[in-house]
Amino acid sequence: LVQSWMLAVLGPWTFYGIFRCPFLVPFINCESCPVITCWGRITSLFWGFWLLLPLSAVLVGRAFCGWICPGGLVNQLIGKMSLLKLRLRNGLTKIVPLGLLLGLIVALALWLGMENPRSMIPIRVGEFWSALRLSFEHAGPYWLVRTFAVLGLVAAGLVIANLWCRFACPTGGVLELLKRISLFRVFKTSACNDCDACLRICEMGSRPDETNCTNCGDCLNSCPVNAIKFGRRRK
């Protein structure tokens, strides 16, 4: 219910950012964006989002991904139909989450290194689908590469569940770094016997308080020895 409500609030901005934002890194230069119909032009929404994101990370780690992000909801729905859930622990699943950092590095290079250039003629008016078509027709090569790369990784979620959220999302990369200082989290106690019952039901293929754990709470009642808790983890 929370995710559906946030899809209604942030969803239009998300879809504008992916398909109609003329900047290579969307959701950042909204106040100077010429696409006047984009929801990012709503000042309260723009600043509310960028205040909520770090605050949520400090309080509850990567919970934004599991509770608020519209893209996360879409990826989870796609993941329901995926061929591979990749819910296991091995060398591969330890390495591929580094793609989150790679996505973050690319986004920072475009934003700070290249000053987030506009690479598409903004289409301000018209029906959504016609404006979308015109956006692709008049886009530069960098914008097309960025957009098709994102769409391709999301579509790849039909093969590996939640591939974008687990292995590529720049926002997820930021939150993955910040969640280490979060006050509250889902975590394992010393009673954990590594049975991986939690891993087998996790949409993100993770265990509590490990890489890609989004504090969604789906695993709270899965542990046969009651070793999963939510709160402040004490050393």
Describe the structure.
There is one protein chain. With 235 residues, the protein is mostly helical. It is built from ten helices and two strands. Strands 1-2 form a two-stranded antiparallel ribbon. Helix 6 (99-113) packs across helix 10 (170-178). The longest helix is centred in the first third of the chain and has 18 residues, at 2-19. The radius of gyration is 19 Å and the shape is elongated. The two termini are 34 Å apart.
Short description:
The chain has 10 helices and 2 strands; from the N terminus they run H-H-H-H-H-H-H-H-H-H-E-E. The protein has 235 residues and is mainly alpha-helical.
List keywords for this structure.
single chain, 47% helix, 235 residues, mainly alpha, two-stranded antiparallel sheet
Distance between the termini: 34 Å
- In round numbers, the mean pLDDT is 92
Low-confidence stretches: none
Beta-strand content bin: under 5%
How many helices does DSSP assign? 10
Helix proportion: 40-55%
Class computed from helices, strands and strand pairing = mainly alpha
Integer-rounded radius of gyration? 19 Å
The global form is: elongated
List the helices and strands in order. HHHHHHHHHHEE
Provide the fold topology.
Layout: H1 2-19, H2 43-60, H3 63-67, H4 70-79, H5 91-95, H6 99-113, H7 128-137, H8 141-155, H9 163-167, H10 170-178, E1 185-188, E2 228-231
Helix pairs in contact: 6-10
